Amino acid sequence: MRTEKQKMLQEDLYIAGDAELRRDVKKSRQLTRLFNQTTEEQIDYRSELLKELFQETGENIYMEPPFRCDYGSNISIGNNFYANFDCCFLDVARISIGENVMFGPKVNLLTPSHPLDAEVRNSGLEFGKEIKIGNNVWLGGNVTVNPGVTVGNNTVIGSGSVVTKNIPDNVVAAGNPCKVIRPIGEEDRIYWENKQKAYWEEVEND
To answer: Which residue range(s) make up the domain with 31?
Structure first.
């Protein structure tokens, strides 16, 4: 017979709050409390806490406290990740974040969902759907990603967006619900490479 945790991670209906899940939540609350109480002089300690909290982390992971999550153990993050203040990752299902990803403040990754029927919902049954964030993604401030969504590689999501459906690679998307606005292409690359070149020329000439 499957445990409630197994049902949860298999994205089936489950009831939260059994002994195993309570233990997992208690551990995540302890680690996030310690993380959120750190100072700017404790960068190495912050990294240690995040590595203990998350299932998997790459190198160069930086998150501004405060941060909240359900379990932490269902979250994996690639190399070169930055998250600004007040982010919240509810990981009753798996959350995977790629490499070179940036989050603005108050980004929410929300895997939990609930039955639409009120009587079933009131019984305490719930479920989750995995969220995947690709490589080289930038989520602006106050972006909310809903259960089951994948955000493609090299994509930018505008601030305040509510992402309810998958977003493809190499686009700018925004809105509620979030929709593709335009592709990111060669003109963008040339524009920003020229801006970068001008920056370094100014630095070298100072």
So the answer is: 4-205
